[in-house]
């Protein structure tokens, strides 16, 4: 969504992102880099409709040739609507010459994550005054192998029926104040094999997809 807000507030977030100091190789660092403020200059300048229109206005009854005007600009991608279910897809490949190579390093991710530093200050479905947008982890997809072959497995949390999540999906409103992870038992699923695992085992997995449900 293109924003035309006041430049003083257009890049403001629900929580101060500059206080994050995210750890390298963490999901917080990934989100911080993905939502960073970028400056568009030189060949990346932005086409300015207002400047172009002003340049093409007739002067002294002389019709000027239309010329598109480009200007320096700032760009930042922020979350404008906090979803009831948050899905994070990690890029697990990189270019190695003309080939693609899988990225195998571990990316740290938490049980509870706060999206407020990555949400616009005018996030549509966050109550005024709230400075936290919390999500609890409930599923992880892991890939083992290479770019040519491998195997997908999953970690899933089995928990009681979450009426709060239903309220979010149906009405888009949050009335809860939980700040702890939704309680439940984790299971590792590989084809037809299912076994209970500890949360530490889940958090040490090489995540490819992460699934969170909204708490607050």
From TrEMBL:
GO biological process, one term: protein deubiquitination
CDD domains on file: Peptidase_C19K
Domain USP residue range list: 1-215
GO cellular component entries: cytosol; nucleus
Keywords: Hydrolase
UniProt key word rRNA-binding: no
GO molecular function: cysteine-type deubiquitinase activity
Alphabetized PANTHER family for the sequence: UBIQUITIN CARBOXYL-TERMINAL HYDROLASE
Official protein name in the record: UBP16 hydrolase
Organism of provenance: Tichodroma muraria
Organism lineage: Eukaryota, Metazoa, Chordata, Craniata, Vertebrata
Encoding gene (name): Usp16
């Amino acid at each position: 969504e293109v924003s035309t807000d006041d430049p003083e507030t257009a890049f403001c977030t629900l929580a101060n992102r500059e206080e994050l100091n995210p750890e390298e190789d963490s999901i917080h660092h990934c989100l911080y880099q993905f939502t960073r403020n970028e400056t568009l200059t030189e060949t990346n300048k932005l086409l300015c409709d207002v400047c172009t229109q002003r340049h093409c206005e007739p002067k002294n009854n002389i019709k000027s040739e239309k010329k598109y005007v480009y200007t320096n600009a700032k760009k930042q991608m922020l979350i404008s609507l906090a979803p009831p279910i948050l899905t994070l897809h990690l890029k697990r490949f990189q270019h190695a010459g003309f080939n693609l190579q899988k990225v195998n390093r571990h990316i740290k991710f938490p049980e509870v994550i706060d999206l407020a530093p990555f949400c616009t200050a005018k996030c549509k479905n966050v109550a005024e005054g709230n400075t936290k947008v919390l999500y609890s982890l409930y599923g992880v997809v892991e890939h083992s192998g290479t770019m040519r072959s491998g195997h997908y497995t999953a970690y899933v949390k089995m928990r009681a029926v979450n009426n709060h999540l239903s309220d979010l999906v149906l009405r888009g409103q949050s009335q809860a104040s939980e700040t702890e992870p939704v309680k439940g038992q984790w299971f590792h699923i590989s084809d037809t094999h299912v076994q209970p695992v500890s949360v530490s085992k889940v958090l040490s997995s090489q995540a490819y997809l992460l699934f969170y449900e909204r708490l607050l």
